[in-house]
Design goal:
heterodimer, A: 259 residues, alpha/beta, TIM Barrel, globular, B: 211 residues, Rossmann fold, eight-stranded mixed sheet, four-stranded mixed sheet, 6 helices
């Protein structure tokens, strides 16, 4: 029986592990390669890197990070942030990433999903979706809207419709981030996750709001998520991945417990 | 030297990286002559069966791999590399290498587990239930899990060749073994330490299935 995946997310800025603090911007909290190795040893099922560097020289630094990570950890990992073309995807995949994720760029240029899937296979292409709750309307019947550029810009696109469309376009997985829950550590957006995960035939990774192991249990059961993304709760060593997994296993969630 | 067969089926560098991490000398190449110098061969692959077979034929690797098996030297198939050793794949109705008799089938639609529909591809970590001992799969931790990404699975005609099975709505064959051939549906190079252990065992294996 397939295990639910626990996936730490590492934000990387100019080659440094960073963490966004509300109203204070980002602070560097260490080396992404060291952190990835630690999470690999602790039993992470996969790792997500998100490159928040905007500049083009930042890109080269990120590729170097990917290359170093690929030499040290032997589980799948994905890289997102600033991927605008199949060529960008190719660089990251050749450097050793298993998957690439596209977010705002896919909204602006949906054929990018199809091109990536054709070039590398659907299993390589993860659609990152930033979603915000809104009024239900004709345009947004699900009551959840796609926002881009880190949640700053609303698009008028219905989240449920976009998830289904992305699957048709060839996305192999969806990483669903609730902008409302992100950073609160008060739990995932269960209703949103359940709605999207049960509407598509590809796996959905829940993101945003994880603060304690109970939150992961809820989103992996009630929320029908296939995987759960975590950040602060492990970056600040409030919990270890091992402790989270022990809790989940004891709660009856099918999880990988041997590594 | 370990030869990694390059037939333009996905990114093969992760297998090479895992072997180098283990201190093994390896070479990724599509040249049959160079591959023939190898002490053992890994036949990896990600992608579609149709393209894979076309690329193998174009490089005459379809003929070469049959001869390789006769030498008795070890061969490890991974994922798509495992599927194309069978006779036929229902992916694009592809005629495959027929090194092992049997078919490659697509997971049935509407698989259900615990009341929920199962998603295809089967992607993520899952267990393998081994039917017997084999030198390549020794020293694995209890309840080890392996990383899978696939929509099709092999169904060998001879049940005795099934070395391991995995549950995903149905029980399917995830490990095949015959003489100097072992083949896995999962990715040992992406399966953490248990996966590395399999690669390490393979690198030391003489090619005899001590059954």
């Amino acid at each position: 029986m397939l295990s639910k995946r626990i996936i730490p997310c590492l934000d990387v800025r100019s080659g440094k592990l960073t963490k966004g603090i509300k109203f204070r911007g980002n602070i560097d909290i260490g080396d992404p390669v060291t952190a990835a190795c630690k999470y690999y040893e602790e039993g992470a099922d996969e790792i997500v890197f998100y490159d928040i560097t905007a500049s083009s020289d930042g890109r080269a630094i990120m590729i170097e990070v990917v290359r170093k990570v690929a030499e040290r950890i032997f589980i799948p990992f994905s890289v997102g942030g600033g991927i605008r073309s199949v060529e960008d995807m190719r660089q990251v995949i050749l450097a050793g990433a298993e998957k690439i994720s596209v977010n705002s760029e896919a909204v602006k240029n949906p054929p990018l999903i199809t091109e990536g899937a054709k070039a590398f296979g659907s299993q390589c292409v993860v659609l990152g979706m930033d979603v915000k709750k809104t009024e239900r309307s004709n345009q947004i019947p699900s009551g959840y809207e796609i926002v881009i550029h880190g949640g700053r810009i609303p698009t008028g696109i219905d989240a449920l419709r976009w998830a289904k469309e992305a699957e048709q376009l060839g996305a192999g997985e969806i990483c669903l981030n609730s902008i409302d829950a992100d950073g609160t550590q008060e739990g995932y957006e269960i209703q949103l996750t359940k709605m999207i995960s049960e509407a598509v035939g590809i796996p959905v990774i829940a993101s945003g709001g994880a603060g304690k192991p109970e939150h992961l249990r809820d989103v992996l059961t009630k929320g029908s998520a296939d995987a759960a993304l975590i950040a602060s709760m492990v970056h600040y060593e409030t919990y270890t991945i091992r402790a989270i997994k022990s809790f989940l296993a004891a709660s009856g969630v099918k999880i990988r417990t041997s590594w | 030297m370990i030869g990694i067969v390059d037939y333009k089926a996905g990114n093969l560098t992760s297998v090479a990286r895992a072997l180098r991490h283990l201190g093994e000398d390896c070479l990724v190449t599509d040249d049959p002559e160079t591959l023939s110098q190898a002490s053992r061969i890994i036949f990896p692959g990600v992608g579609a069966a149709g393209d894979a077979m076309a690329n193998l034929r174009e490089r005459r690797l379809d003929v070469w791999i049959r001869d390789w098996l006769k030498t008795g030297r070890p061969l490890l198939g991974i994922c798509l590399g495992t599927q194309v050793i069978f006779e036929h794949s229902s992916e694009n109705e592809t005629t495959c290498l027929s090194l092992v008799s049997g078919m490659v089938k697509r997971f049935p639609e509407n698989l259900v587990q615990e009341g929920r529909p199962l998603k295809i591809p089967h992607m993520g970590w899952n267990q393998v239930r081994f039917t017997r001992c084999h030198p390549v799969f020794q020293d694995l931790p209890e309840a080890a899990e392996f990383y899978f990404v696939h929509s099709y699975y092999p169904a060998p005609e001879e049940k005795r060749l099934i070395l391991g099975t995995t549950e995903y709505g149905i029980e399917f064959c995830s490990v095949v073994a015959r003489d100097n051939l072992v083949a896995v549906q999962f990715h040992p190079e992406k399966s953490g330490k248990p996966g590395l252990q399999i690669l390490r065992n393979f690198c030391r294996w003489g090619g005899v299935d001590a059954q």
